[in-house]
Amino acid sequence: MRALKGVSFDLQAGEVHALLGENGAGKSTLIKVITGAHQPDGGTISINGETVAQLTPASAHKLGIACIYQQPALFPDLTVAENIGLRLEPASALRKVNWATRQTRAEELLKRIGAEISPDAEVRSLSMPEQQLVEIACALGAGARIVIMDEPTASLTQKEQHLLFAVVKDLRASGVGVIYISHRLEEIFQLADRVTVLRDGESVGTRAIRSGTGVSLVQSADVSPDVPISRTLGEDRRDACPTNELSESELIKLMVGREVSAIYPPSESEAGNVVLALKNLGCAAGGVKNISLDVRAGEIVGMAGLVGAGRTELARVLFGITPADLGEILLNGQRITISTPKEAVAHGIAYVPEDRRRHGVILEMPIAHNMTMAVHERVFPGTWLRFGAEKQIAQDFIRDLGVKAYGPDAPGGSLSGGNQQKVSLARWLATKPKLLILDEPTQGVDVGAKSEIHKIIRRLAKEGLAVLMISSDLPEVLGMSDRIAVMRGGTITAMLPAKTDAHEVMAAALGQAEKGATK
Amino acid sequence: MKKHFRELSVAGALAVVLIGLAIFAPAFFQPQPLLSLLTREAPTLVVACGMALVIISRQIDISVGSQFAVCSVCAGLLAAKGWPLPLVFVSSVLFGAIMGAFNGWLVAGLRLPSIVVTLATMVTWREALRWQRQGEFVNLPDGLQWLGLSQVAGQWTLILAALVILVFLALATKHLSAGRFVYAVGTDAEAARLAGIRPQLTTFSVFVFMGALVGLAAMMNVVQSPQVDPKSGSGLELKVIAAAVVGGVAVSGGRGKLWGVFVGLLLLACISPALTHLHIEAYWEKAIQGAIILLAVVADGLRTRKQRN
Q1: Distance from CA of B154 to the nearest CA of A (A)
Q2: What does the alpha-carbon distance between residue B164 and residue B174 come to, in Å, rounded to a whole number?
Q3: Complex-level ipTM
Q4: B181 contacts in A (CB within 8 Å)?
Q5: How many helices (H) and strands (E) does chain A have?
Q6: What is the pLDDT of residues A111-150, one digit of tens each?
Q7: Cβ distance A347 to A314 under 8 Å?
Q8: Separation of alpha carbons A413 and A370, rounded Å
Q9: Which of A131, A179, A316, A414 could form an S-S bond across to A148 if both were Cys, CB 3.0 to 4.6 Å?
Q10: Contact A373 B192 (CB under 8 A)
Q11: What average pLDDT does this structure show over A256-284?
Q12: Residue of A nearest to B187 (CA)
């Protein structure tokens, strides 16, 4: 799988250049290439007009490239000054620490970005935006000319965002080039000079956002290229799109504009009774609020939304991992409460988690053990394990789901990703659920196994199971769902019918409809 | 065969040692000293089985030596008061289970790291005992030693009892749901939780069980002599952890077999008498035991690295 196929991107001094794309479009990979964490296998990177042969994290650092991640990478038990010192001072074990310089430099840097943070404060005691400011101070202190910000506002409040925006504008004014990644269109329109859209690992277009100033910046940068960087990775297919002003809907079109590539099995099931009904469900700890949703027997409800929209959190609420504190859950018309996964299983709810390596299949255990993990009480009444019964269950699922393994004794770790996913699915089907929650069922699975899993999901729906399918793969949501619920900011913002197009789903996920309504 | 490779290699090492002794020091196999050796190790085996479960569930309990001493002294005092033997046995197990429950509550309930919790209880129980008894031995009434049997019969009873417990636990870990849960929680507590297993309850139960086994082992030790030494059980924790590690229990949790622990314990226990019979200075005992433990850990490390690649 190639994460990046052909990306052309350039950044000028004193510019905020936004990078936009749906989940898995290749933004993170591009950032990793720019910071030297990944090596590109084609194309060129040039910084300051000079082509860089090989970029490593150390050489990127030397060239003045700094990246501020969503979760700041600071040492929580050290003070701000110590953190800045560790980043900026030469790494030598026997060097004497000059505390006075360390202190004054930290003070200066913090002052330069207008942060009111004491250099003596322990990083643990700082809020998330304050930690981000410390990161920015580090970047400035290292003489960064290119600052990459990966969804910096994801965990910030409104007020903290404004503070951050002011700092970004200051950076721009002082001639730093900023690559700004965000899912929030309003931020991009507020902050960015230009925006580049990535789709399926390719850059599909670069547009100027602010008329007038945008053009002059481009020209001035061309005349005196202070910090121009440009990269062309993979085959060179520089988009000849003119940089003109654009609207939100044009941006969304750029992001999703593609055909549903895979062929999805057709929906054959008739929706039956309502199996799950949620009324104003909320959970403060899980960060979801005001969820109302119906799922019927035989129906596949797709859950779309961007990373962090609250979809996995909703699944965890329904499975009793972070129990709901507001609203009602009705299962087959009966009001129930779910406060532990065990209760959820007893009620007939099954959850196939997202990260199967961490939370799904136990890799050291044979697949037979993995498959019966959730049904000990039923398969082994009296707690005495009956290996015959266990083997039978495993063999049935291996046959039904087409698991490719040498037998029920094969350890989970010996299987491919797709087959591990089938084992994880088998564990939950063994509980004979009424409602099946799938979280990214085909993530990291190859194309063949993916279509097999799709067929299995369809078959389960046909057999009368209610399926709630969380997926960041937009074509999958569109191809598989009977209805689509779109989440944003911890709540469902749109319910869309089966024949929706990608544009509408993306618009809802990005909050365009919501914004239009508030205007 | 492949599944038991780790345990079989330890068994192979034990066989080599035994064959070597048979050739160079056949005196090692005289029945009476051998019987005494096995009797001495019987309580250790019982504690080692419990320790194996604790380590498989990805925890550690270094307070077992102190628990052992507390159980021994309390049982001795009750026996001296004239309590009947079966009741003394039950009380000792109960004392152990209570101390285990305290550890389990701190580890599973308050989610504190088990190494710190059991370090604290280890010191606390030991010092409390010293303060209370001032190092005084407890004299046991007549008829308690060797359970009122002849010495040989008593020795055989203890050895068989330890073996019965071993076989029972070996079967239980394989054939009971609870056993499977211990392995699941030790490998991946979060995955286990998502599968409806209660990891905290499992951990708590393992600690209680560990304590109960310590109580039983303490009694098996008490009946071997006419007095109870309040310092008994010191160093026991290291001995049983070593036996578990040599026997193939992974310190990272989730892997290990009880019969492997049995073989590991025998291997370590053979070293001291073997040295005596081979006329090597006893100073070497600890060094050789240390080398065996190191070898086991290095072998595990190399194996996991190979699997990862």
Answers
A1: 33
A2: 16
A3: 0.80
A4: 376
A5: 19, 20
A6: 887 778 888 989 888 877 788 888 888 888 888 889 998 8
A7: no
A8: 11
A9: A179
A10: yes
A11: 77
A12: A362
